[in-house]
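Lab meeting prep.
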Amino acid sequence: MTTLAKPANKPAVAHFSSGPCAKRPGWTLQALEGAFLGRSHRAKEGKARLKLAIDKTKAMLGVPAGYHCAVVPASDTGAYEMAMWAMLGARGVEALAWESFGAGWVTDITKQLKLKDVRVTTAAYGHLPDLAKVDFNCDVLFTSNGTTSGVRIPNYDWIPADRSGLTFADATSAAFAQPIDWPKVDVLTFSWQKVLGGEAAHGMLILSPRAVARLESHTPAWPMPKIFRMTKSGKFMQEVFEGETINTPSMLALEDYLDALKWADSIGGAKALAARADANANALNAWVDRTAWIENLAVVPATRSNTSVCLRIVDPAVTKLSLDAQAAFAKAIAATLDKEGVANDIAFYRDAPPGLRIWCGSTIERANVEALTPWLDWAFGVEKSKIA
């Protein structure tokens, strides 16, 4: 077959990784010059910087009064593990899984915590389970946005206000880019390195008053590592949620997060961040709609992510190949574009169906998404010519 001519224009920034994600537009190392370094994070100034990050986060996300927010170790994973280890076991659990991270929480619940009263509700990649059948007498665990499947919940309407159990939302690739209906959420976690393009290793844990009541009324049946403890003598450790972190945070990474929040505030806050992600995803999906060889992995349009957009290759010459060969084909496209300096790290996640995963979050510029799409067509043509 005849391949397309190589496009003339490249994206100005080739960073389309789904985590850690692209830095904010205009970012340089000079943004970190004010970092509180070489001092204890427990010093007055250090705690003030951590508290500032917490307060700015709550303000930008519209977190209601009475909710608590903490900087915690080990990224979104650490935050979600803290919540599970500290709060589960008081009642039955329903865990929803439609991609790899949700499946990982299921493994921890059943294999590590070894809870017995567990209902696992799954859906294949590209789909959501039937949310109308979720039992809210249980504690319910879910991902707001499936980073490895590109499938998000369309809204929070399926969660009743008068539920008996707690809701645990893993929102690592949703926070700041998708609306959060706070009265429907008891635990929400995310990491700095996703929508705001911050540095890794730190997570954010947000708790409702109902979640705090659970902490104070429930004693887990298993030993609790220090890093997961949020109560002392049965009382909520308020200080952890006011900047006195459980372990030593990176004040350099903190400064980077504060810089990202400052940038976000300067462009209009959470609404502007979501609008940027929507514009990026719309630009990519417009190309998908007019391109025969690829389609969105998320089947229902209302469930398509505006941040971690996952695509699958549907060209017959590729789909007739073995699954391993399809995976190799997709990886070859990603490698070709990486080598050209056009798109870094856009291969599918290792547990997901073969395809491409392109980050469209708020730190991405729409012009770069639009510049990328001709290169996707070109790279596909190059790789297909090798199997035709």
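Slide two material, second protein:
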Amino acid sequence: MKEIVVSVPDKEYTFFMKLVKSFDFVTVLEPEVKPPSKQQFLNELKQAVQEVNDIKAGKKKGESVKDFLIEL
């Protein structure tokens, strides 16, 4: 058996996984997801709070709910 690694854009992931899993000869190995380190989590949280503050202050433009939901 051969193994391959494929990179797929986030927005196409669900479609691609449905397609690949539809083949009876393909075995999909889900990647292990490691939780972020405490420091990484705190850094990302600080960045998110700063971004919200910048949007509130008018320094950045926020994303519309419609665009956000389409991205999901």
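Talking points for slide two:
The chain has one domain: 10-71.
Residues 10-71 form one domain.
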